[in-house]
Design goal:
This protein has helices at residues 16-25, 30-39, 50-74, 77-86, 97-107, 113-129, 145-154, 173-185, 206-217, 233-239, 248-260, 264-271, 282-293, 303-315, 344-357, 398-408, 416-420, 465-478, and strands at 136-137, 143-144, 318-323, 326-330, 377-383, 386-394, 424-432, 439-447, 451-456, 481-482. By secondary structure, the chain is an alpha+beta fold. It has four domains: 6-74, no CATH class; 78-220, no CATH class; 233-363, no CATH class; 377-482, no CATH class. Strand 7 and strand 8 (439-447) form a beta hairpin.
Length: 486
């Protein structure tokens, strides 16, 4: 929607004719009336003919009838679901956020009339048994449960039990949703709990994980499913034992590392890197997993910087200024980099030298990255007699990243290309008191799925409890999720 025109700032008084017209439509202020005109395609002028005014009256009356009809639908869930599934009402016509979200999820399902009718029957039945249809949950407490219900209906032919025989046992809706996934697809009741979340996901990899759920639910071994990486028997065994809060991707990494004999601290550190979210270039990255497992004395805090260094050297192109104002992209510095023959001390020295060389990013183009859809955060907190202002703001260009990297002595400057491509956004948490400049405390990475995947302070230290409370408050305000492993 375009920005509101300047005329919407016009103030009272208004002509008597328009004032009466406004009263007929229920508006007391000209600003509210003009805003309504703008939203419904009418001229924002206060100089209107009788024909113009009558057209507005007719439109207002039609909208009121529509609103009343929607209100009746909202009071009758069965009628609402029938209207959406049949296509007689669309999400664009619905105003209430919860009902709009339900309609959008249904609209993304198969539009075949028979399947839509089957979906309607399923949702109506579930609505009589639980609150899943019109409530949200998941790790972010904002994902519509109906998204998962639609995806379960997509695999109706694979249900093991009739949905009519299902009865919720818990009062917690996340558990109720999990109970339903096990009822429909889990023959022996031993599919890992963390796999329940794959039904709520809407990203491209999630379809494969839902296939895994069905495959495991029939008592099959994960090794016989279409996995993104080759698995040994030991890895397939450990996958089922992964921590409850992990995603399917993280559980797969956890299983690989457990089978390789890596320490728990090393596993947690690796899962927190890009390797816990992606399986691209797996043959190389598996050699990195093996390197970590084979070096148990490696400080887990160094694992994140090592992964960033290896990724930058092997896969990140470099922007080079060939002449003033003219930039060219060159291949990655070491596209054939290998872990063969590397020692921990040599690798750490190379990572340290790379950190010092990141100053070259100061000369990168100054264009800003695209601003993300959510905002930063400002909050005042008192600690004893001292008042502190905490601020979270997006780092918008390569220079911002470099300054953050220099002050906190970590490698966030290397995230320039990821930010430029929209793969993630980087945010800085700072605090200021009554005197003195703001102090940078934490650097936060948010991936394109609105998940906070990294949060590191000076020399990659973990956040304090106070800092975590600010990050959690921001996540709640901005609609972000925090990765379970953080």
């Amino acid at each position: 929607m375009a920005l509101r025109p300047k005329y919407l700032q016009q103030a009272d008084p208004v002509p008597v004719t328009i004032e009466r017209h406004m009263a007929k439509l229920g508006f007391q202020r000209s600003r509210d009336y003009l805003d309504w005109c703008w939203r419904n395609g009418f001229d924002g002028s206060l100089d209107k003919s009788k024909v113009d005014l009558q057209e507005e009256v007719d439109t207002y009356a039609a909208l009121e009838l529509k609103r009343e009809a929607q209100s009746k639908l909202h009071r009758n869930p069965k009628a609402f679901l029938n209207s959406v599934c049949s296509g007689s009402i669309t999400s664009d016509e619905i105003e209430r956020p919860v009902y709009k979200a339900v309609a959008r999820e249904i609209e993304e399902s198969d539009s075949d009339p028979a399947k839509r009718n089957s979906l309607f029957e399923m949702l109506t039945l579930l609505n009589a048994k639980s609150d899943l249809v019109f409530k949200s949950g998941g790790a972010d407490n904002q994902t519509p449960f109906v998204r998962g219900l639609v995806k379960m209906h997509d695999r109706k032919a694979l249900w093991l039990r009739a949905i009519e025989s299902w009865k919720p046992k818990s009062k917690n809706l996340d558990r109720v949703f999990g109970e339903l996934t096990h009822h429909l697809f889990d023959k022996f009741g031993d599919v890992p709990t963390f796999m329940e979340a794959v039904w709520l996901r809407n990203d491209r990899p999630s379809w494969r994980f839902r296939d895994w759920y069905v495959h495991l639910g029939r008592g099959n071994n994960l090794r016989t499913a279409k996995t993104v990486v080759p698995l040994t028997k030991k890895m397939a065994h450990h996958f089922r034992l992964a921590p409850e809060g992990y995603t399917a991707e993280q559980a797969l990494r956890w299983a690989q590392l457990q089978a390789l004999g890596a320490s728990e601290a090393s596993i947690n550190s690796l899962v927190a890197t890009r390797l816990g979210r992606s399986f691209e270039n797996e043959s190389f990255w598996f050699s990195v997993l093996r390197f970590v497992a084979d070096n148990p004395m490696l400080d887990p805090r160094q694992i994140g910087p090592i992964v960033d260094y290896l990724h930058a050297q092997r896969y990140e192109p470099i922007d080079v200024e060939v002449e003033p104002g003219l930039w060219e992209t060159e291949p990655p510095p070491q596209p054939n980099l290998s872990m063969s023959g590397r020692t921990v001390n040599t690798l750490l020295r190379q990572v340290d030298e790379w950190h010092r060389s990141l100053g070259r990013y100061k000369n990168l183009p100054t264009e800003n990255y695209e601003k993300v859809e959510f905002s930063g955060f400002v909050v005042d907190r008192s600690s004893g007699s001292e008042s502190k202002r905490w601020t979270i703001r997006q780092l918008m260009n390569a220079r911002d990243l470099q300054i953050e990297s220099d002050e906190l002595r970590h490698c966030v400057a290397s995230y320039h290309w990821s930010c430029a491509k929209g793969a993630c956004s980087i945010w800085s948490l700072s605090v200021s008191g009554s005197a003195g400049p703001a102090e940078r405390r934490q650097t936060i990475e948010v991936d394109k799925n609105k998940i906070i995947v990294q949060c590191r302070g000076l020399a990659n230290r973990d956040p304090t409890n106070e800092e975590w409370s600010i990050v959690n408050a921001w996540a709640s305000d901005a609609g972000l999720r925090i990765a379970e492993y953080l």
